[in-house]
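sry for the spam today, last one i promise. struct tokens for design, 158 residues
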């Protein structure tokens, strides 16, 4: 883990809320010169703290309004089979994210499809690439949307 000072944390907080913010404005907000701010942002990228700057896209408005979370239990576990599954899932455009998880299942997929037929095609493909069991949860609505990653210790929840 990279050691982050207070200025790094402010940079991360600001960029998580507005990744398109011009460097001059970011520098003003963190109280550094634009050159120093740019160096810090580049260091945060080089060390992997910042993994990219992306536009937040609403799947429904972009034509992929059928969202599901899919729990997958793999048929076998080996380096080769796990790697093959990961490569095959990475090639599916409807799969937004795939995470290895603990518990009775092995992988959690976030799928955004243009129709239930497209979702069904993804689900039918999973056994062909190594899934033994698939559990699908349709996303109805967001209870809490994406939020920034905390950069400093947070107060405990009561």
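last one done:
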């Amino acid at each position: 883990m990279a050691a982050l000072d207070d200025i790094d944390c402010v940079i991360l907080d600001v960029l998580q809320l507005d990744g398109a913010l011009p460097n001059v404005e970011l520098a003003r907000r963190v109280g550094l010169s634009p050159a120093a701010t740019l160096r810090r942002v580049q260091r945060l990228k080089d060390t992997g703290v910042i993994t990219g700057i992306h536009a937040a896209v609403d799947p429904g408005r972009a034509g992929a309004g059928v969202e599901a979370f899919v729990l997958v239990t793999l048929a076998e576990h080996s380096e080769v089979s796990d790697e093959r599954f990961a490569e095959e899932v990475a090639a599916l455009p409807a799969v937004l994210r795939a995470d290895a998880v603990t518990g009775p299942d092995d992988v959690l997929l976030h799928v955004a499809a243009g129709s239930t037929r497209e979702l069904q095609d993804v689900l039918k493909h999973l056994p062909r690439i190594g899934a033994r069991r698939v559990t699908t949860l349709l996303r109805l609505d967001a209870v809490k949307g994406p939020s920034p990653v905390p950069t400093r210790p947070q107060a405990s929840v009561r």
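The mean pLDDT is 94. ok im logging off now
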